[in-house]
Hints:
This protein is α+β, with helices and mostly antiparallel strands. About 25% of the residues lie in helices and about 35% in strands. It has a single domain, classed as 4-Layer Sandwich (Deoxyribonuclease I, Chain A), CATH 3.60.10.10. Helix 2 packs across helix 3 (about 135-145).
Amino acid sequence: MRSRISDTAALTAVMVGLLIVVITALLVVTDEPQQPAARTSPSPSVTPTATPTAEASATGQTKPPRPTRSPGDRETCVDGGTRSRLTVLTFNIHSARTPDGSVRLSEIASELATWDADVVLLQEVDRGRAWTGGVDMPAVLADQLGLAWAFGTNVRRSATNLYGTAILSRFPIESYTNTALPAPPGTQQRGLLNAVVDVDGTEMSVYGTHLEHTSADARVQQMRAIAPILAADPRPKVFGGDLNARPGSPVLLAAGSSVRDTWQAIGDGAGLTHPAGVPQHRIDYLMHGDGSAAELAPLAAQVLASNVSDHRAVWATYELTSGSDTAVCVPVVPEQG
């Protein structure tokens, strides 16, 4: 009898315990706030990336979506424009004649080849003149050096007897013009030769001239005619030649209104160019100016001695920067894992 009572008590205790557990569980579920349906989370080793809709530009073209950046992202930046280096030379070749009257155009060609400029401004250049053997100097020099060329006729004695200035270029010459400059009575006709060249896709203007040597007033008139032409040109530009004027003269002051003196900016020393043997004067110049969409900066300049001409040559290196000067930056997201 005692055993049956004990079994009944034990069973009752088990049932009471189970009932307590069920009631407790129901109370916990009822008190816990409702949660939204759970979302599947990416693995911790995978960085979720958004896929935004591509933007449409004003032209109707589709732009790639801009990458999402976080404060920890690094970026790689490159210049927005293009940069090209070029060398320019100005040289009065004195019709390739030496004091003894001999014509040594082949030696002029050798000097030019040694100096290896991309653009060459030449003064006192003959085409078909009897006193220099009837040679077409710009054509011969360009052919020997493998360059394009343009010629500006300033003195025409006949259809085949011409004298003036020339431009030789390693870059394609897109167009060229020669503008007559003021020629007061008793002076020689002078001109401003302009060639537009394509420097790695950027148009640049090259101007060459040879100003009057007998009259300071004529030189001033000529430079005052040149200055507004240079100022109105929207391209980056080089202007040079034999100006027959010294630094600080009215001619150079007029030139300085539209272009900058390359030697003054980057040259070392006095930069004397004439006479060639023991130069006493600086009368040969290279100058430069920026354009509306490109800049031209001088990097180096030298004066080079000639064994033929009565002038020394002026040589300079420039950097042409075109396009936007704003850097383009692309974010670099470190790899995960």
